[in-house]
Amino acid sequence: MDMKKGFISILALFYFVNIPVFAQNDAIIEAFGTYTELPREVVSVHLNKTIFFKEEEIGFQAYVFEKGTKLLSQETRNLYCMLVNEENQVVKQKMVLINDGFGHGSFAVDSSMVQGKYKFKAFTNWMRNFSENNGYSQEIVVVDVNKPEIVEKSKGVKVDAQFLPEGGHALAGVDNTFGVIIKDQNGLGVKNLKGIITTDEGHQASSFELDQFGIGRFILIPKHNVNYYAEFEIGEQRFKRSIGTINKAGINLQLTDLKNEVGIVLNSVGSKQKKYQMALHNGLDIKMIDIDFSSNPKQIKVLKKEDLFDGLNIITVFDKNGNPLLERLYFNFQDVERFRLGNDYSITHANDSIQVKLHLGKLTTSALTRLSVSVLPKETLAYASSQNILSQLHLNPYLRGHVQDAPYYFTETTRKKQFQLDNLLITQGWSSYDWHTITTKPPQYLFDFEKGITLIGQVNKKEDTEILLSPLENNSFESFSVSAKEPEFTQDQLYPYQDELLRFSEVRGEAVAKSVPLYARFKPSSIPILRFNGKTNGKINNQFLVTNATDIYEGFKGFEKITELDEVMVQKNPRKERVKRLKDKSMGQVIAFEEDDYRRRMFLGDYLSQFGFYVSEADGRFNIATINPNSPNNNQPLIYLDNILLSSYNVLARWRMDVIDYIEINRSGLGGGILGGGGIIKIFTDPQLAYKTSKKAPMFNEVAIPLAFSRPKRFYTPKFNSYQDAVFKSLGAIDWHPNLSTDGQGNVSFKIPNLGLDQAQMFIEGVVNGNQLVSEMKIVDF
C-alpha cells in the first residue's frame, strides 16, 4: 500500500477532524522550560581530510554555534581539541582561541601516533553542564605506507538487523510503519537489500527495499498473537529475524509528508484513556496539541510546515499523567539557512603556484563570513567525514544513534534524499532529549562560558605598591594596586599563546620598574574532560577500503628528503637599514631602541617629557600637552598606538618602554589636519621585545602559564617524490586554507602549489552572511 495515497484517502474520510488546537500542559511546558533555560552550544569542525600519513598535519577549522538560534556563539573563547586513540587515551590536545565563533589550528602526525584509528574531539567548557552530545567527534585513520594494515575479511556475514515501529509502538489491527536498518559486521549499512515480511505460516505480509545505507521502511497491518519475521539474503546466506512485539492495545502514530504540510495519523485500540497531549519541540521552544479519541479512535492532525520549527522537530505523545508514550523525529527543510556557492570561480597560474578565486557575489558587508577549503587530488579517498557543518548543527546533536553519511542528506538535497532522511529518523527512535531527564534532572550551572584565562595573583608586601603586567599579543598593558590588607589581584580574559610568558614588575613612585616575586594561580589550568555519551560519533566511511588498498601502496615512491643548506653569513646592519626605511617614510623624528637600551627601563611619560611635552600621571590618568604648540587653540598632541588613534590617553599611564619598538614624534603636526596643531605621536609596540630585555638588570619576573592557547601556524604538507602515483592521488593533500574571509567584492582568494595536476577537488565549509551555512565539493580544472 502506498502510504501517501492511503493517508490522503483517510484524510478525505475524516475530513471533519478539526485543525489542531494548541493547548497548555503546564507540567510538561514548565519542565521543558526549566530544562532548556540554559542555552546550549554546538561545535562543528572541518578537517582537511580523515586519512593521514605520518609526517602530515591534521588541519582543522572550528565553528562554535548557539544551538537554539543556530547563530555563531559570542560567548565562548576557549575550545578544547584532542586526539584520542583506540584505548581512549589522549594522544594530543590543545586549547584553541575562538573569535566570533571561529577558530583554527593543526596537529602534527608525528612519531607519537602509530598506525591505527583515532578520534578527533572538540568541545567547550560550557558543554559540561549538559547530558546531550553537542561536542564534535570524528574518527580519523593514520596509515603507514611501509606497513599497510590488512584487515582480514570475515568468512561469514554478521548482520545487525533492526525493525523499529514508527513512534516506538506497533499496534495490532491498524496501519503501522516500520523503519528498517541492517548493518554488516563493520557497522556499515547493507546497501540495496531487498526482503519480505512473513508470518509463522510463511505467508508474505509486506516487503521492503533498502537504500545505499541499508535503511528503508515498510507498512504492515499486523494481527495480534501472530509472529512476523523479516527474511532476506546477503550473498549466499539467508537470514530470518523477528520484527518485534505487536501490541494488542494502545496507540500508534504515522507521519506523512504532504509537500507543504505534514499529516499525522494517531490510532487508539483497546485503550480506556481518551485524551492525550502531543508536544512539538526543537530543543529551544515547545508547542502542545490536544489529542482526543472520544469521538473517533483515529485522529488526524494536519500541520503546515510554516507552523513547524525549521530543521529537526521532535514530536512526543504523552498520556494524561505526562508519561511519554510515542516519539517521532521529523526534519523540516523549509527555511534552513544555507548558502550555495555555484560554479563561479577563476584560476590564475603564477610560476609554481595557482591562485584560486571564489566569486561569492554580493554579501552583507556587516555580517561575518569565514570559509575553510581543503584541496585534494580529484581521485582522493582520504576525505570520508561522516558529518559536515549542516548535519552537525541541524541533525547530529538531536540523535542518540550514529549516522553513516550525514552530509549526504544536506548535499544537493532532493525529494528523494528528504524521504531517505525521514526513513533514517524513523530508525533513530527516541531523540537525545530524554524526557525522564527533562522532568527530573534539569542541568545545573556548574561550568562557565570560558573567555580566556583568569589570573589570580598575590603579592606579600608590607607597603602599598603597584604591579604592572606587560602586554601580550592579544592583551594590552595592565596595572594593579595592592597593599598589605589587599594583597590579591585578579585579571580576567587573558589570551596568551603557548610561546608567551607573563611578566610582572613593581613600581613604588620611582621612574624605574623592577622585578617582583608573586604567587600566581590560573583558571583554567588544565584541559577538562567531556564524556561523549550514548553513541559512537563520526565513524569514518571508507576505512576498510583504505586499510586494505595494498595495490595503492605498491607504487609509492616516498617523501622527498629535505636537505638543509649550510648557512651563509651576510654582513649587514639590519637595524640601521630598518631605521633608515622608517625615517624615509616618516614626517617627523623616528626613535628606535636597542635591546639593551637604558631608555627601555623608563616609563613613556617620563620619556616624552624630554621632547617638549608636559606629562602628568596621577590616579591612573595620563595628561599630555605640547609646551610650544603650533596652534594656540590646540596644545594636545594626537597619539596613535599601533596605528589606532586613541580617544583616551589613560591607557598610557605608567606605560613601560620595554615593549615599545619605535616612536615617531611629529612636532609640526603635518598630516593631522586641524587637530594636529599640538603635534602627532605614533607609538609602535612589539610585546616580543620584552623577551630580549637585558638580564643584567631585570625589570620583571616571568611566570609560566600552565595552559595557554595554541598559536595557529602555516599549514605544512610534506613533499612527495611523485605527485602522479596512486598513493598521492588517493590519500595525499594539495593544500589547506582555514579562516578565509572575503574582499569588498565578495571574493575569496587563496594560493595552492602547482603540482602538475589537471584537476582537484575542493571541499568547502563555512558561514556566509553571519548565519548561512556552506558545505560543498567542487571539482576545479587547472
Entry keywords:
782 residues; 37% strand; Ferric Hydroxamate Uptake Protein, Chain A, domain 1; mainly beta; disordered N terminus; 10% helix
The biggest beta sheet reads: 5 strands, mixed
> Count the strands?
45
Predict the CATH topology of the domain at 574-698: Ferric Hydroxamate Uptake Protein, Chain A, domain 1
- Contiguous uncertain segments of 5+ residues: 1-24, 543-548, 562-571
Note the quaternary state here. single chain
Secondary-structure class:
mainly beta
- CATH-scheme architecture of the domain at 574-698: Beta Complex
Shape: elongated
Average predicted local confidence, pLDDT = 86
Radius of gyration: 33 Å
In which range does the helix fraction lie? 10-25%
CATH class of the domain at 574-698: Mainly Beta
Query: How far apart are the first and last residues' alpha carbons, in Å?
Result: 52 Å
Strand content: 35-45%
Discrete helix count: 10
- Strands of the largest sheet, in order across it? 2-9-8-5-6
Protein name: TonB-dependent receptor plug
Keywords: Receptor
Description of the molecule:
Keywords: Receptor. This is TonB-dependent receptor plug. The chain has 782 residues and is mainly beta. The protein has a domain at 574-698: Beta Complex (Ferric Hydroxamate Uptake Protein, Chain A, domain 1), CATH 2.170.130. The strands form twelve sheets. The protein has a five-stranded mixed sheet. It is elongated. The two termini are 52 Å apart. The relative contact order is 0.15. Residues 1-24, 543-548 and 562-571 have low confidence and may be disordered.
